[in-house]
Amino acid sequence: MAAVAVVMACGIAMFVTLRSMHGWLRGTQAQYYEVYRFADVFANARRAPTALERQLAAVPGVASVRTRVVMDVTLDLPGLDEPGTGRLVAIPEHRVPMLNDLYLRRGRWVMPGHAEEVLVSEAFGRANGLQPGDSIAAVINGRWQRLRVVGLALSPEYVYEIRGLGDIFPDNRRFGVLWMGERALAAAFQMDGAFNDISIALAPGASEPDVIDATDRLLAPYGGTGAYGRADHVSNLFVSSEIEETQITSVLIPSIFLGVTAFLLNMVLARLVATQRDQIAVLKAFGYGNPTIALHYLQLALGPVIAGAILGTGLGVWLAVALARVYARFYQFPIATYSQDWSVVGAAFLVAGGAALLGAVGAVRRAVRLPPAEAMRPEAPAVYRTGIVERLGLQRLVPAAERIILRNIERRPVRALLAVIGIALATAIVMTGWFMFDAIDVMKQIQFEAVQRHDVMVVFDTPRSARAEWELTRLDGVRKVEPFRAVPVRLRHEHLAKRTAILGLEPGSELQRLVDRDMAVRDVPRGGLLISDMLAGKLGVQAGDTVTVEVLEGKRPVRAVVVAALSKDIIGSSATMSLAALHEMLGEGGTLSGAYLAVDRRLAPLVYRTLKQTPAVSGVVVRESVMRGFEQTIAQSFWISISMMVAFACIIAAGIVYNGARVALSERGRELASLRVLGFSRGEVTWLLLGEQVLLTLAGLPVGLLLGAGLAWLVAYRFESDLFRIPLVIRQTTIGYSLAVVVGAALLSALAVRRRIHRLDLVAVLKTRE
Amino acid sequence: MDTAAVFLARGLTKVYHMGEVDVYALRDVDLELFAGEFVVLLGPSGSGKSTLLNILGGLDVPTSGTVRFLDHDLTVDDERELTRFRREHVGFVFQFYNLIPSLTALENVALVTDIASQPMEPAEALRLVGLSDRIHHFPAQLSGGEQQRVAIARAIAKQPDVLLCDEPTGALDYETGLIVLQVLAEVNRTLGTTVAVITHNAAIAGMADRVIKMRSGRITELHRNQRRLAPTELEW
After folding, report:
1. pLDDT per position as a tens digit, B147-186
2. A-chain residues within 8 Å CB-CB of B98?
């Protein structure tokens, strides 16, 4: 019964935690978006006149429009050699309710006439130790400026605070949002009377695609790069997919545990009813009705279940609080604390009761069906049959004692199968957990060691001429410069279209390479596009096909380009061309969006300082910082989840083996004691009892490995997105660990039963009948 | 039949402490069992005969006193040595047969011969007890008498020095019981195995070489039968 209670506790804990998390995240997100008016459609442009706002508002389906200036700038952060990036977002100097409103955590709004005042995002502020009154330095439109922090704020647009699709996780130290008065911001970038960022709230029943089309048409002359809805909004994308994940896991994981619980409970209760046959008979003979007896056994079932449910609820609530804290580091919500939704706990108890019912129903039915007279006789002896050993002609190989094990397994094939499935599940759980770690490790290796060979990536504020490359080469400490050009485009093939970016690289580039999932290195095609297979799939193209490229900036040329080849990349779904071919397609000479630099480590701080003060540079990304940040954040949350998975697997495996051994001991204790009397040693008898568990466990392991591989494939498939692809890598060590964990758990729990064998009463067995 | 004593018990006492009450299952019992003889231990329930048998068979240890098997002192043995003693020297026959339900008759006997040092062929043991045509049947498919005969076959198959039977006919009717007793007599005659039978049924005493009567933990009477009756001559 203890095993039942423990497994139940795990299932309930997982249920409480995951459902609470799901409910909390979903409710918090919904409420946040509603109260702070998160927009429905977003768009960027190069430079559109403020007058256009009225036309945008007139589009059918548009409830309200907000236009503003948004610019990324370089930040000079205290204690950081390398430059940070700040996203300057305009806010009205007088606080009014608006789309994408701000939650003011601390401090006050900016004041008109104080151009240097900014609000900073709370996570960024905390990571950099910024309080109202502190100042930070930024390079705004070529001028180094000191900005004064007057408050810390949060916005529904930046719940997941990352720069853009190139980043995977928030780097709150090096990237933050700064809200500045709109007049001050416009003045700094010579954008008076103009805007480059649009947010639209849709009216009820409006058609998003129609609004998007209309917006694109209106913005096209002003460098519009394509409007998109919440589904493509970077922050919302991450948060919503996380919420979706918890929905799935909150059902899947508890179900596994509760299924195992029902199975174990069934075994235990069935055995109990069998041993209490005569007591049941007596009760019935005395006139106790079936409902009373049924209730009695149901209550027995409820015992460990309630114990498990209480334990599990406590554990679940505690875990939920801990998990909420982890979430709070990644997702910026205004709500400071997590509050437990007690209806989830109520639901948990109901679910526990359901599992108890499921497990008990078989045994209860048997107890109820027992005719009183029948119950007073000993149970009809179990029917055994010659089984697989004889059919396969293996008599000579299997000694008589071992046949006991096989025949007992064959007598209850369903139970044996369920036990094998349970062990397989446990193995698969560990394997899937380790697989995710291995996959992330491979992704990290590919991205940070194979693909990115540069030390620093520099992004220019606007496409610059080749002179910028030359100037970078001249900098002290810069050993190598490889320029690149990136343009937002829409690729079309027949009726399918996808918005993406084309990266132009020099052939033979070493600082940024094109590496496939299987570590194969590609080179940039001399002519034509190299597109990732994910993107190709979305467009329905293969190598050799032609796509229409609509460039979404500058002169906005439209060209037909051949797909030279498909790549199997890991992160992002990109399209790449040779720099020369891209320049030719754009028809604008040798412009550059940025460059990859190899930097002398000793002179790196000097390089950063120079870059911080270079007006043309709007972004600097240091590969090592990103990698370390990746390792820290991912590694941390990984260790939590892998520990939990190993714990789960151990509990399931141990529960099944221990329970199985205990029930078997109860059923066969007499025959085992008889064997001891006949001169079998304790060890031999232990083997005869546990051999069944050993065989079932061994049978479950390979099934578990297959199941684990299948689950891994499923996970990789499910997580496939525009953001990244999980490589299907199953290392030998992963297989080894999975087996070791499950075998270890099974072994330990089997040994726990060993003590009971030693206590078998040999004298008593001579006199008893059953 | 004046041969060496297979078992030599001196001053055997077994006390159970049940809270404030001490229960004496055996009180200062002296006993010898000689090789090849057929002994019946007679007494009502509670007389201590089962306890004595258990101690002789190495299943239980006396509170005081000694028991020697040939020249081996059983009372100083630990659990492992007692197990080995039972394994190599003792055959047991229980009142309720205690067969392994998941094994056939042949396999039940093979179970024991597999761990014995000088066993006979399992099929041969079953032939001796008259069950050659039932060797592939499971206990559930055998009658009580047949099951007990399988148990006897299992006990003798390892060619033990002594066969200890605790109420072997207790669960059987007259005719079947008779058959079992005939088998025991046959085993004693042809194999020369020392046989000790516990029973509360006085009629069975007629087939023994010696009869040992017990009451309240002591041996009250010990006499030698002038003539051993054949089992068919017994009536109860």
Report:
1. 999 999 999 999 899 999 999 988 888 888 888 899 899 8
2. 670-671, 674, 677, 765-766
Could you tell me the residue range of the domain that residue A435 belongs to? 404-453+624-770
| Domains parsed from chain B with CATH numbers | 36-54+88-233 (3.40.50.300)
Farthest-apart Cα atoms in chain A, separation? 103
CA distances from A407 to A178, A388, A398, A411, A680 (A): 73, 9, 12, 6, 19
Give the Cα separation of A196 and A49 in Å (integer): 9
Task: Tell me the per-residue pLDDT of B65-84, one tens digit each, with 9 for 90 and over.
Answer: 999 998 888 888 888 899 99
Q: Which of B87, B100, B103, B141 to mutate to test the interface with A (most CBs of A within 10 A)?
A: B100
pLDDT band at A389 (very low <50, low <70, confident <90, very high): low
Helices A682-719/A413-445 angle, 10° precision: 50
Expressed in angstroms, the distance from the first to the final Cα of chain A is 23
Structure tokens belonging to residue B135: 């060797």
Residue from the list B60, B79, B100 with its beta carbon closest to the beta carbon of A671: B100
* Residue A91, C-beta contacts closer than 8 angstroms, at least 6 positions apart: A68, A98, A102, A109, A110, A119, A179, A180, A181, A182
Residue B226 Cα, gap to closest chain A Cα (Å)? 32
| pLDDT for residue B39 is more than 90 | yes
**Same-domain pairing of A430 and A485:** no
**Rounded to an integer, what distance in angstroms lies between the CA atom of residue A177 and that of residue A25?**
22
Element (H, E) at A514: strand A514-515
Best of A766, A767, A769 to disrupt the B interface (most B CBs within 10 Å) is A766
B38-42 and B72-73: which strand pairing? Answer: unpaired
Of B129, B122, B130, nearest in space to B106 by CA: B122
Segment B11-29 shows an average pLDDT of: 89
| Euclidean distance between the first and the last CA atom of chain B, given in angstroms as a whole number | 28
Instruction: Please tell me the distance from the alpha carbon of residue B182 to that of residue B176, in angstroms, as a whole number.
Output: 10
Task: Verify that A527 and A652 share a domain, yes or no.
Answer: no
Give the chain A residue nearest B52 (alpha carbons). Answer: A763
| Interface test mutation site (partner A, options B82, B98, B109, B146, max chain A beta carbons within 10 A) | B98
**Contact flag A381-B101 (C-beta cutoff 8 Å):** yes
Report the amino acid identity of residue A612: K
Specify the number of domains making up chain A: 3
Angle subtended by helix axes A732-758 and A623-677, to nearest 10 = 30
Same domain (yes/no): A201, A56: yes
At residue A460, what is the residue type? F
Q: What percent of chain A has pLDDT over 90?
A: 31
Instruction: Give a yes or no: residue A244 inside a domain.
Output: no
A422 and A544 part of one domain = no
Q: Write down how long chain A is.
A: 770
Residue type, position A294, single letter = A
Instruction: State pTM to two decimals.
Output: 0.80
**Are residues A484 and A449 part of one domain?**
no
The domain boundary, picked from A213, A237, A261, lies at A237
Same domain, A50 and A108: yes
The per-residue pLDDT for A51 is: 92
Mean pLDDT of chain B, nearest integer:
89
Distance, in Å, from the CA atom of A623 to the CA atom of A560, rounded to the nearest integer, reads 35
pLDDT score of A77 more than 50: yes
